[in-house]
Amino acid sequence: MRPSGRKTDQMRKVSFERNFSKHAEGSCLVKFGDTHVLCTASLEEKTPPWLRNSGKGWVTAEYGMLPRATGDRMKREAASGKQSGRTQEIQRLIGRSLRAIVDLEALGERQISIDCDVIQADGGTRTAAITGAFIALHDCLKWMEARSMIKVEKVLKDHIAAVSCGIFASQPVIDLDYLEDSAAETDANFVMTGSGGIVEIQGTAEGKPFSQDEFLTLLGLARNGIDELVALQKQTIA
């Protein structure tokens, strides 16, 4: 039995609240159980210097955790003058994931910055951030389309979502919360498109190496979970 009482293939309750931020072109408060992440999408009419006059746009991301998102207060990274390696790794993952489903030429010479701020953490913050960031990005593009700047169907090629899977108490499980994540024998994050394409897989054995059969089981759990998430995304933006 999982600490939460969920079945091995059962995800936490997932919800999306659109237009959470008044000022951003697109925003979404995403909840994976007790993990809550605010995702905002901001449009800039410029590109990074290396893309100037290329005809292409850019999608990038920043990620952070509020000081009391966890059980003990964390110092703000700004107070130390630099981001942690974990923060940099996660925000690069979010950016790569979103760019995988965006036609940068169709976007034009513009940049969309996605900010993912963890309000409350209970495991799976990066997977929740990616999944909610898609909604914020979609709504930013709809904002642009309403102003005759782009056509969403030309810019957005697919859905993108992410979920964690792992081996906990010798059982493959999906969508690990903190209690499971902190004691997992194997921990993996899967980022996939709505059409089934794999964007990124991060997998680590915390002790005993995992087998190919176990990996394929985790991949199957992830595929089913991402199908559920994409269905919820479609329902949310319909």
From TrEMBL:
Phylogenetic classification of the source organism: Bacteria, Pseudomonadati, Pseudomonadota, Alphaproteobacteria, Hyphomicrobiales
EC number: 2.7.7.56
Keyword RNA-binding: yes
Protein name: Ribonuclease PH
Residues in Exoribonuclease phosphorolytic domain copies: 10-140, 160-224
Role this protein plays: Phosphorolytic 3'-5' exoribonuclease that plays an important role in tRNA 3'-end maturation. Removes nucleotide residues following the 3'-CCA terminus of tRNAs; can also add nucleotides to the ends of RNA molecules by using nucleoside diphosphates as substrates, but this may not be physiologically important. Probably plays a role in initiation of 16S rRNA degradation (leading to ribosome degradation) during starvation.
Keywords: Nucleotidyltransferase, RNA-binding, rRNA processing, Transferase, tRNA processing, tRNA-binding
NCBIfam families with a match to the protein in the record: RNasePH (TIGR01966)
Recorded superkingdom: Bacteria
This protein's record includes keyword Transferase: yes
Binding site for phosphate: 86, 124-126
Catalytic reaction equation(s): tRNA(n+1) + phosphate = tRNA(n) + a ribonucleoside 5'-diphosphate
Sequence similarity: Belongs to the RNase PH family.
PANTHER family: EXOSOME COMPLEX COMPONENT, EXOSOME COMPLEX COMPONENT RRP41
Record text on subunit structure and interactions: Homohexameric ring arranged as a trimer of dimers.
